[in-house]
Design goal:
It is built from eleven helices and eight strands. It is of the alpha/beta class. It has one domain: Alpha-Beta Barrel (TIM Barrel). Helix 1 runs parallel beside helix 2, helix 5 packs across helix 7 and helix 7 packs parallel to helix 8. It binds 2-phosphoglycolic acid. 2-phosphoglycolic acid (PGA) binds next to strand 8.
């Protein structure tokens, strides 16, 4: 694809006021620089509409952290993809490892969510990645292929009609850990993701409509290294996205890369 993405995952780390002020500061500082990188912020659910108001008319794009697979119905507590669209979300994280671990989100659920988001023309950011044990047991490839295949199974039952989707490779042992991962491992995973996509939906569709990004302890020191990995066109950032100074440093690094 070529276009770069920097996606801020604020998780459940900020109050409503903190979220609003961070969004406001990003809007003001982004207006002062030139960047070709697409910058997406993913606030927590209850804050989405307020942040949507703050960033309206700016270059910042809005993403949600979760959605359900039905637009409407008796699903207490769930998040409607149609409502996300109404709020102005153009992106949504799906299958983040924290949701898989704490909320029991399965590969099948991820697949249904991806299909529902695409129907709403919301770009799913599909998070896949192996645990430390799976890596040590030499099961990384198997895990990534399974997660990706099931994430796209429902969506690819229909002919692809031009929607963009993002795959975020997030080794679970890297998230929030500050550990190091070798570039070769990131490149090998990006290649595996591409190969799997080519088999799932043809290389022509995958090349044109899918962006692969990296996530897990991305910071101002290591971002340029990740962005120079072949096959990686952006980053999903948790901790380093929580202050305007840190996140704007990442934006500047991405814009120069
Ligand atoms: P981190 O989180 O940058 O704090 O490791 C990334 C993520 O969970 O998406």
């Amino acid at each position: 694809m070529g276009k770069k993405y920097l996606i801020a995952n604020w998780k459940m780390q900020l109050s409503i006021n903190e979220s609003r002020s961070l969004a406001q500061e990003l809007v003001e500082r982004l207006a002062l620089i030139k960047t070709d990188t697409s910058i997406v912020v993913c606030p927590s659910g209850p804050v989405l509409s307020q942040v949507a108001g703050v960033i309206r008319g700016s270059d910042l794009l809005l993403g949600a952290q979760n959605s359900f697979w039905e637009d409407r119905g008796a699903y207490t507590g769930e998040v409607s993809p149609a409502n996300l669209k109404e709020l102005g979300c153009s992106f949504c994280l799906v299958g983040h490892s924290e949701r898989r671990e704490y909320l029991g989100e399965t590969d099948e659920m991820v697949g249904r969510k991806v299909a529902a988001l695409l129907t709403q023309d919301i770009t799913p950011i599909i998070c896949i990645g192996e645990t430390e044990d799976e890596r040590d047991d030499g099961r990384r490839e198997e895990v990534l292929v399974q997660q990706l295949s099931l994430a796209l199974a429902d969506a690819f039952r229909q002919p692809h009609n031009g929607q963009h989707f993002i795959v975020a490779y997030e080794p679970i042992w890297m998230i929030g850990s500050g550990q190091m991962i070798e570039s070769e491992d990131v490149i090998a995973s990006a290649q595996l993701i591409r190969k799997t996509l080519n088999e799932l939906c043809t290389a022509a569709v995958a090349d044109k409509f899918c962006t692969v990004i990296y996530g897990g302890s991305v910071d101002t020191i290591n971002l340029s290294g990740f962005l120079s990995c072949s096959g990686i066109d952006g980053a999903l950032v948790g901790g380093t996205s929580l202050t305007a100074d840190n996140f704007m440093s990442l934006v500047e690094i991405a814009s120069r890369s």
